[in-house]
Amino acid sequence: MIGKQIKGRGFRDCLDYVLGKKGAYIIGGTMCGQTPEALSTEFAITRQLKPHLKIAVFHATLSVHAKEKLNSDTENDRRWCSVADDYMKAIGFDNNQYVVAKHTDTEHDHIHIVGSRIRFDGTVVNDSWDYYKSQEVIRSLETKYSLETTAPSWESEKRAQTTAEYRKNRDSGQKSVRVQLQSLIDECVASRSTMPELIKRLQYEGVEVQIRMTRTGSIKGISYELNDIAFNGTQLGKAYTFHGLQKYRGISYDSEDNELLKMLTQQQEVIAESSELLTGKSLPETNRHRDALTVDLITSDTFDSDDSNLSKATPEVRSLSLQPKPNPYKPTEQTSEAKVEQSSQIDTIIAIALDALIAVSSDRQTLGQYNILWNQPQLNLSIRAIDRGEILKAAFTVDGTYQLNACQLTELDIENFQAFSKQQQQRQIQLELD
Question: Cα–Cα distances in Å, from 281 out to 295, 301, 363, 385, 402?
Answer without folding.
Answer: 21, 12, 12, 26, 16
